[in-house]
Amino acid sequence: MQITTSDLGLAARVQHLTKTYGSGESTVRALDDISVGVRRGQFTAIMGPSGSGKSTLMHIMAGLDTPTEGRVWVGDDDITDLADTELTLLRRRRIGFVFQAFNLVPTLDVAGNIALPIALDGRAPTALERARIDLLVDSLGLADRLTHRPHQLSGGQQQRVAIARALATAPDLLFADEPTGNLDSRTGREVLQLLATASREQGQSIAMVTHDPIAASYADRVLFLGDGRIVADKPRQTPEQISAYMLAAEVAA
Ligand SMILES: Nc1ncnc2c1ncn2[C@@H]1O[C@H](COP(=O)(O)OP(=O)(O)O)[C@@H](O)[C@H]1O
Ligand SMILES: [Mg+2]
Questions:
Q1: Which residues of 192-218 are buried (b: 16+ CB within 10 A; e: fewer)?
Q2: Which one of 55, 65, 225 would you pick to mutate in the ligand 1 pocket, going by the greatest count of ligand atoms within 8 A of its CB?
Q3: pTM higher than 0.90, yes or no?
Q4: Which of 117, 200, 201, 245 is the most exposed place for a label (fewest CB within 10 A)?
């Protein structure tokens, strides 16, 4: 009998995942034989130096990019060989993503951008989704920006719109690449509280890339990447423990 991703208590996983870019002498090995899972209902932080493979790992787990070698599961579905159209549907229905570069639609206003995943699914928001969006707009301080378009917003405001959009449908699985990178510390804490609450109270499984030890301390688990490999996998850490580990790893490198 095959052991499934759910049997393992995981929401997504990769096995023997390798990703290379380019060919010949210019080949870059972004991920090097990684096997890891995102635990269901947990908030996982992913840390590591710039270029260590964090974004690539999240993109592949979210079905936005494909592996060179290895397999990828979302829930019990092996998505490794899915066609683009199937991956698009899977992402739209089950996965939220907050991109490092926000990826807002320039021609849509804030309200339109937040409701986009629902519109793309060809339906109107449910009453529950409308209530959730109102709450997100409120707690992210976007209420007086709903009719603005992305170019009329600051980087931090655009980032908050991207976060509201990713949480609007309460996806089982949420990936966020540096979601607090452009935020002041108070708004950053607000976002981290939102993510922690989403996993604790709604059972959403969340993976977040961050450079910030304080942000990572909100997570239940902290994964450290180095040179395309997982170099440490730790339970919840204080910011001081995380900083100390990062410092020691840097000295050792
Ligand atoms: N589309 C791409 N083409 C070529 N190299 C890439 C591409 N995307 C990422 N890389 C390379 O793969 C490695 C890992 O990148 P990335 O996953 O973005 O790291 P991180 O998010 O940890 O900064 C880096 O060396 C980066 O230059
Ligand atoms: Mg990155």
A1: bebbeebbeeeebbbbbbbebbbbbbb
A2: 55
A3: yes
A4: 201
